[in-house]
Amino acid sequence: MCRRCKTPMFELVGPPCEAPGCGGVLVDTMSLKTKECWKQCSKCGAEFYRMSGAEMLGWATRTIGRVLAGEKPN
C-alpha cells in the first residue's frame, strides 16, 4: 500500500469475485513489505489465493508472455 496515496503498489484486474452474489472483480495485489500476494475482491473485500510474491510475479510474467504471443489469457 502506498503511504501517500493509500493504494496498492501492484494490481492486475481479473475475473469476477467468487463470493456468492457479489458483483466485484478479483484484483491481484502485492504487498512489497511482506512480499505476499493475494486476490482480493474490489467490492466485498474478500481475499482468495494468498501466495508468495515470487509465485505471483512468475505467473504474471507467463501470462504477459502468452498475451504478447497472441494467446488468450486465462
Can you tell me about this structure?
With 74 residues, the chain is of the alpha+beta class. The chain has one domain. The protein contains 1 helix and 4 strands. A 4-stranded antiparallel β-sheet has the order 1-2-3-4. It is flat. The termini are far apart. The mean pLDDT is 78.
Please render the helix and strand layout as text.
Blueprint: E1 11-16, E2 25-31, E3 36-41, E4 47-52, H1 53-68
Antiparallel strand pairs: 1-2, 2-3, 3-4
Beta-strand portion reads 25-35%
Give unreliable regions as ranges: none
Major sheet strand order: 1-2-3-4
* Number of β-strand runs: 4
Question: Key terms for this structure?
Answer:
74 residues; alpha+beta; four-stranded antiparallel beta sheet; 1 helix; 4 strands; 22% helix; flat
